[in-house]
Amino acid sequence: MTPLRQRMLHDMQIRNLSDNTQKSYLLQVSSFARHFRRSPEMLGPEEIRAWLIYLREERKLAPASLSPAIGALRFLYRVTLKRDWSDEDFPLPRKPVRLPVVLSLEEITTFFDSIPSLKHRTILMVAYAAGLRVSEVVHLKVTDIDSKRMVIRVNQGKNRKDRYVMLSPRLLEVLRTYWQDAHPRDWLFPGDIPGHPITRTAVARICALARQRSGITKPVTPHSLRHAFATHLLETGTDVRRIQLLMGHRSLATTSRYLRIATSTVCATASPFDLLPHPAPIPSPPPAPEYF
């Protein structure tokens, strides 16, 4: 490990960045240095610009996929190397605004009914019923289910924040049935490797197979269930601020995007077309004469 890599790692550890962020940043900077075959200390804004053009034009990365590279370089040069560079030296591409595709209640029911495994069904039901990220679901422990207070404790979710979410009475019944069948001891959903939880990749495969079995044509991922959780709460009148707390969003603006897809918002206003008088019925054409 080079001294610069070690220093950057220490800077990230001091700031308590997540393990995944540390690994991602080191990988991004390493790729940047290998591309130019020089130490990052010898590179500057022109190389950063050329690197981003290479990632966009040659590697065909989407704008959202450039964010980790830009974040890593910003941290390296501003924090570790203490370069006094502006935001213009780290151009962030504008991301297209896309709204998530949301499953209806009927589609959610069909989706769950298509999962034959009790364990797999329970995993995805937890994701929907509590609005959890897949990383939060797989890291749940048996002790995180508090049936006395009817809450689920999420330990160190995104941005290293703990939070509590509701424990649905119906979900509690499902969890008790699952526990009586599997008897998990530590991790609520243990994986194939002893002492480790099920992986996010495994949950993604479970979700993809369930979508295939259900016949649902909409895209369905574990995160789709989280989108459905927030949207369905909005449609039943739950306050946006409360949903923000349940979802663990740092910004209310992140939660507010669900207002653009909730039917309670989109369909709350009548179309002016409905105010138009009904047009006179279109007369039927006269019957064609018969010649035979």
Automatic annotation (TrEMBL):
<protein>
    <submittedName>
        <fullName>Integrase family protein</fullName>
    </submittedName>
</protein>
<keyword id="KW-0614">Plasmid</keyword>
<keyword id="KW-0159">Chromosome partition</keyword>
<dbReference type="InterPro" id="IPR050090">
    <property type="entry name" value="Tyrosine_recombinase_XerCD"/>
</dbReference>
<dbReference type="InterPro" id="IPR010998">
    <property type="entry name" value="Integrase_recombinase_N"/>
</dbReference>
<dbReference type="InterPro" id="IPR004107">
    <property type="entry name" value="Integrase_SAM-like_N"/>
</dbReference>
<dbReference type="InterPro" id="IPR002104">
    <property type="entry name" value="Integrase_catalytic"/>
</dbReference>
<dbReference type="Pfam" id="PF00589">
    <property type="entry name" value="Phage_integrase"/>
</dbReference>
<dbReference type="GO" id="GO:0007059">
    <property type="term" value="P:chromosome segregation"/>
</dbReference>
<keyword id="KW-0233">DNA recombination</keyword>
<dbReference type="InterPro" id="IPR044068">
    <property type="entry name" value="CB"/>
</dbReference>
<feature type="domain" description="Tyr recombinase">
    <location>
        <begin position="98"/>
        <end position="271"/>
    </location>
</feature>
<dbReference type="GO" id="GO:0003677">
    <property type="term" value="F:DNA binding"/>
</dbReference>
<keyword id="KW-0229">DNA integration</keyword>
<dbReference type="InterPro" id="IPR011010">
    <property type="entry name" value="DNA_brk_join_enz"/>
</dbReference>
<dbReference type="InterPro" id="IPR013762">
    <property type="entry name" value="Integrase-like_cat_sf"/>
</dbReference>
<dbReference type="GO" id="GO:0015074">
    <property type="term" value="P:DNA integration"/>
</dbReference>
<dbReference type="Pfam" id="PF13495">
    <property type="entry name" value="Phage_int_SAM_4"/>
</dbReference>
<keyword id="KW-0238">DNA-binding</keyword>
<dbReference type="GO" id="GO:0006310">
    <property type="term" value="P:DNA recombination"/>
</dbReference>
<feature type="domain" description="Core-binding (CB)">
    <location>
        <begin position="1"/>
        <end position="81"/>
    </location>
</feature>
